[in-house]
Amino acid sequence: MLRTLFFILCLFAGSAFAEQASVPQGVTVPSWKQLSAEQQKDLQNFSQRWDSMPASRRVQILERYDRWKKLPPAKREALREGVQNFQEMTPRQRQNMRESIRYVRTLPPEEQKRLRHLWASLTPEQRTQWLEAGGPGIAPEPKQ
Amino acid sequence: MNSHDDISNKSRALFEHSVATLDVATANRLRLMRRDTLSQKTPSRLRTFLIPISASLAIALGIALFLPQFQTSQAITEQDTVYISTEDDADADMLTWLADAPVNTSFNTKGSL
Lengths: 144, 113
What we know:
The complex is a heterodimer of chains A (144) and B (113). By secondary structure, chain A is mainly alpha-helical. Chain A has a domain at 90-133. Chain A is 61% helix and 0% strand. In chain A, helix 5 crosses helix 7. The longest helix of chain A has 16 residues, at 55-70. The radius of gyration of chain A is 18 Å and the shape is elongated. The N and C termini of chain A lie far apart (40 Å). In chain A, 24% of the residues are buried. Mean pLDDT of chain A is 85; it is low at 8-20. The model of chain B has no long low-confidence stretch (mean pLDDT 81). Chain B has five helices and no strands. Chain B has a domain at 1-40. Helices cover 73% and strands 0% of the residues of chain B. Classes of the chains: A mainly alpha (144), B mainly alpha (113). At the A-B interface, helix 1, helix 3, helix 4, helix 5 and helix 6 of A face helix 4 and helix 5 of B.
């Protein structure tokens, strides 16, 4: 539990400069009591601070939650493993991964797709080496 | 006294007369039939409801056993919460990259932060 909270805080800190999602006009942001029983159960970790969060942040969490809910079980499981993998990385690897993906997102969609495909085609060891060197978009691509 | 009572009284009188004038053989036959009927065990209420109650219990037990498993697979985990709480789309992207293709962390010390 503490570890989860720690990682959540890390993600908050890591994205301190991230743009806040804006709340579209006409959208009502629910208070904790207005969430459904299922939402309250799933979002239990936010219960204490939900009502004091900015509306944009609540919208963002609900959007991400909806996206998660729509994932098929296999994708959900893969995502859990992805999070687990991230949690097992060294701080340096995490930092490199975060910076790398931020940079990749600034590239044209085709290039993003190519890099992701390349990333997926490598072995876990090759990915680790690439990441240690800076990661996709930052370090030279490994030779396959 | 109305006509309905007349009919009723006549019918009762006719019945009493026919019973009183039953021959011995018929009376014995009827007595034996009555005794047979009374000696047969009627199914108890419990037995009547035993099958549906058992079936209901079996179904309830099945649900109790399998529903938690189903709910567990659907239940939110720590990792799900981490994903849901990502503030930045880039972080969410990063997690999906790792979901599809993880890095080798076997040499890292887990929880080294």
